[in-house]
């Protein structure tokens, strides 16, 4: 199919060969599972179980709170041994409320699972969105936005195209590649269900050309459905970015501060499509996910289907432990992933990869001065001038940086990757975005305070006027006094 | 910016293998064929001057770093001072005395680079500032071109003679020669039409040395220490493009503009204006286009900006060569365009994704 060019982009070392040929293996049940209440963008879920309670596999243990939220389910049967604060898989290492589950080994399903929907194309779209919401499905490419909310975009927008993101442009990660090779039928069924729910007539599955077997498997599975198209995408990072994928496949450029849905396009990840298939066809909640465990630091890299809540430790042990001392453990891909504070944190719904990277792989070194080579300008897929942005931020000129497009940066990391001076450009941008958000909060607080003070002053004045009027009723003859 | 913000926790946790040092030494490698050829062509005095200039650049860089209290070794070995010295040496008359190299280094490194804040901070190309300052201050020494005296040939000066030339300032008689650009300029000022002086340049028996057409192309001709061989400089330039250190934008536009301006005006009046090919293959055109104008620090960062910059350099070089008092204008042209680089950068920023050129969000367009 005809594709549209995207600006810039880089060609990092992909290292996909480390785990690309490893079929998905199922992890034996760990001895403990840790289920944080917040595994998604939006409001944290509200815990429904307490210490000592026994739960079955698939049982709801935390319900969603509010529109943008997701519930969580027990990945296996067992006993809740604690509901407590546990370090979250986040670089801060901050804790969050977590249900600690001790599996009983029976792996017994709950009897109250939602009924399978035999013909999803005969039920109203809302029923499907509700099912996806009830099963706790979030964007599994790493963004973890509640999928049901995206499925309801068809209500307020006219959606004509569903894009299934199988680009997997992050180095090392092969979980989506393996899913496409091994479960192409399920992905396509899930995609068709989502397209139906959205009212989208066209489905395009975008896969980078470095995954020929995935393209072949999806092509075979898609032959029966003429509404499905397959886009073999050029290998280029960040092809998998939602806006860039949309541009490459449809030629539509999403306006700043708008959604792809405003253009009639919704993007879902392949793993999300498969989760939707399982939720709709079997009533199965999202309780496992495929994780790529890789990097030169891992003895035997693998693609593992693991229960949500598995500790990173357990995954690494299943891969034979460390081959070399890793410099960092990363959750997600090396470009946009986050470093983990330790190995005791759990796999969550958005964990696409656990990478043990050696110092040589990361190839970090102290920064040199910027020599204005312009590489960052020429590779930026968002059209930014990172060299100038960084100069503004270094002088705390956040307003100037905003004018140059700071908030249009998607933090893809290409500029930092390419910089010969090893300047941590993305770090500057993240710092500046954080500082801007803090300023914004401060500003709103000030305005709120000002409004309150003004309201108070006005009230005091009104009261004073009333008192004065009450004291001197004769001062204004003719009864013209107003309260 | 607070301390906490500089502790690296943001990604990416992958990086390409390029470094500042590797970039600098790749450029040095690319310069090597042309340099070696010219050191051979001009013999021991040019080798001494070359060594003195680079040594002086390293020494002044070290002194500057010590005075500024900056890390010494890391900066000295980043290759930037060596490259500046190398480029400066390549633009000097090959038998110039040692103090020209030392003075050039003082102007290039402490005054043109470190005074602005070190690597990456200077507005003007340090080697070109040094060359122009020397040319304006010492016009006679800086235009003492010599005929080729290849090493191991009969008339090549011995090591002792060369020491006297470089360190004693004893220029022997009968070795100087005019460059083609200089010859044409001088003749034109005497009223000799360009077309005539061009044919004469190869035959004028009053000159000690006159190259033929073949010599002009290969570089067996008088000129600056490193600029004579267009072919070898082109080779180095192509290597830099292949290694993706530079792109075509600046070299092609510099040489293209020079060629187009030369050709057009030559067609209009061939008695006053030299042809395009003559401009392209004379003086520092190739060296400037591939190695001087492409200096990262002092040229625009975007490809569009580089095209504008290159056209400017080509145009100004032609204007200076044609209408100004100096026969060669590359260094002046580069410096003039350096001064407008920040403005070019400002007006050639790429369009932001999802926004119009003016920075407004794009209007919503839906698929048909």
Description:
The complex is a heterodimer of chains A (483) and B (368). Chain A has 483 residues and is α/β, with parallel strands linked by helices. Among the domains of chain A are: 16-27 and 107-288, NADH-ubiquinone oxidoreductase 51kDa subunit (Rossmann fold); 370-468, no CATH class. Helices cover 33% and strands 17% of the residues of chain A. Chain A contains 15 helices and 17 strands. Chain A has a 6-stranded mixed sheet, with helices on both faces. Chain A has a 4-stranded antiparallel sheet with strand order 2-8-7-4, with no helix packed on it. Chain A starts with 24 loop residues before the first strand and ends in a 12-residue tail after the last helix. Residues 1-8 of chain B have low confidence and may be disordered. The relative contact order of chain B is 0.11. The longest helix of chain B is centred in the N-terminal third of the chain and has 49 residues, at 20-68. In chain B, helix 8 (180-189) packs across helix 9 (194-201). Chain B has 16 helices and no strands. Classes of the chains: A alpha/beta (483), B mainly alpha (368). At the A-B interface, helix 7, strand 16, helix 12, helix 14 and helix 15 of A face helix 2 of B.
């Amino acid at each position: 199919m005809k594709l549209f060019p995207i600006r810039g982009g880089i060609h990092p070392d992909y290292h996909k060969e480390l785990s690309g040929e490893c079929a998905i293996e199922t992890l034996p049940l760990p001895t403990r599972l840790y289920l944080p209440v917040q595994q998604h963008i939006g409001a944290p879920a509200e815990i429904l179980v307490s210490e000592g309670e026994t739960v079955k596999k698939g049982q709801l243990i935390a319900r969603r709170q509010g529109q943008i939220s997701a519930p969580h389910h027990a990945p296996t049967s067992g006993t809740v041994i604690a509901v407590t604060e546990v370090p979250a898989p986040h670089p801060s290492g901050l804790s969050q409320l977590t249900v600690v589950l001790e599996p009983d080994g029976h792996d017994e399903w709950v009897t109250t699972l939602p009924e399978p929907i035999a013909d999803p194309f005969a039920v109203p779209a809302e029923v499907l969105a509700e099912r996806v919401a009830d099963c706790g499905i979030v964007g599994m490419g790493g963004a973890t936005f509640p999928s049901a909310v995206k499925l309801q975009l068809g209500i307020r927008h006219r959606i004509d195209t569903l894009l299934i993101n199988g680009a997997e442009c992050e180095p090392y990660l092969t979980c989506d590649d393996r899913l496409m090779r091994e479960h192409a039928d399920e992905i396509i069924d899930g995609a068709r269900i989502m397209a139906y729910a959205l009212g989208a007539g066209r489905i395009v599955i975008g896969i980078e050309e470095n995954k020929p077997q995935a393209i072949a498997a999806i092509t075979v599975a898609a032959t029966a459905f003429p509404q499905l198209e397959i886009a073999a995408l050029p290998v280029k990072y960040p092809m998998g970015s939602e806006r860039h994928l949309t541009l490459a496949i449809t030629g539509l450029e999403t306006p700043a501060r708008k959604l792809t849905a405003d253009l009639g396009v919704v993007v879902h990840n392949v793993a999300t499509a498969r989760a939707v298939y399982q939720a709709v066809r079997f009533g199965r909640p999202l309780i496992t996910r495929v994780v790529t465990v890789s990097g030169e630091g891992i003895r035997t890299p693998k693609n593992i289907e693991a229960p949500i809540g598995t500790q990173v430790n357990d995954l690494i042990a299943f891969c034979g432990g460390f081959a070399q001392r890793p410099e960092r453990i990363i959750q997600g891909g090396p470009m946009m992933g986050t470093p983990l504070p330790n190995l005791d944190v759990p796999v969550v719904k958005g964990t696409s990869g656990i990478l043990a990277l050696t110092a040589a792989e990361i190839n970090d070194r102290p920064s040199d001065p910027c020599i204005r080579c312009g590489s960052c300008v020429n590779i930026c897929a968002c059209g930014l001038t990172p060299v100038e942005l960084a100069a503004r931020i270094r002088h705390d000129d956040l307003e100037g940086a905003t004018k140059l497009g700071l908030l249009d940066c998607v933090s893809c990391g290409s500029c930092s990757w390419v910089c010969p001076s090893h300047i941590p450009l993305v770090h500057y941008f993240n710092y500046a975005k954080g500082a801007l958000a803090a300023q914004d909060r401060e500003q709103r607080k000030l305005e709120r305070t000002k409004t309150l003070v003004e309201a108070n002053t006005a009230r005091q004045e009104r009261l004073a006027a009333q008192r004065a009027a009450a004291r001197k009723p004769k001062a204004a003859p003719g009864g013209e006094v107003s309260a | 910016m607070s301390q906490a913000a500089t502790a690296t926790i943001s990604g990416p946790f992958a990086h390409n293998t390029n470094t500042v040092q590797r970039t600098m030494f790749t450029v040095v490698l690319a310069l090597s064929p042309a340099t070696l050829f010219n050191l051979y062509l001009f013999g021991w005095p040019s080798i001494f001057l070359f060594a003195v200039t680079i040594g002086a650049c390293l020494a002044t860089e070290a002194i500057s770093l010590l005075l500024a209290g900056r890390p010494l070794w890391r900066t000295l070995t980043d290759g930037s001072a060596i490259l500046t010295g190398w480029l400066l040496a390549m633009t000097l008359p090959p038998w110039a005395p040692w103090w020209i190299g030392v003075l050039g280094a003082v102007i290039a490194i402490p005054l043109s680079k470190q005074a602005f804040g070190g690597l990456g901070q200077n507005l003007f190309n340090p080697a070109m500032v040094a060359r122009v300052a020397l040319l304006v201050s010492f016009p006679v020494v800086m235009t003492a071109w010599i005929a080729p005296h290849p090493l191991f040939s009969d008339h090549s000066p011995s090591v002792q003679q060369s020491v006297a030339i470089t360190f004693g300032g004893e220029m022997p008689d009968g070795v100087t020669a005019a460059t083609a650009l200089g010859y044409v300029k001088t003749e034109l000022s005497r009223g000799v039409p360009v077309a005539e002086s061009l044919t004469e340049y190869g035959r004028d028996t009053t000159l000690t040395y006159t190259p033929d057409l073949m010599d002009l192309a290969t570089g067996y001709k008088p000129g600056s220490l490193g600029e004579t061989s267009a072919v070898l400089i082109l080779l180095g330039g192509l290597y830099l493009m292949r290694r993706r250190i530079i792109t075509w934008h600046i070299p092609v536009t510099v040489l293209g503009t020079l060629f187009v301006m030369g050709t057009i005006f030559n067609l209009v009046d061939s008695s006053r204006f030299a042809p395009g090919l003559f401009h392209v293959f004379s003086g520092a055109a190739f060296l400037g286009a591939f190695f001087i104008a492409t200096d990262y620090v002092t040229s625009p960062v975007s490809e569009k900006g580089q095209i504008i910059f290159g056209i400017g350099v080509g145009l100004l070089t032609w204007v200076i060569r044609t209408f100004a008092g100096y026969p060669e204008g590359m260094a002046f042209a580069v410096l003039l365009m350096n001064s407008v680089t920040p403005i070019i950068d400002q007006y050639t920023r790429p369009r932001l994704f999802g926004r119009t050129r003016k920075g407004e969000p794009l209007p919503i367009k839906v698929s048909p």
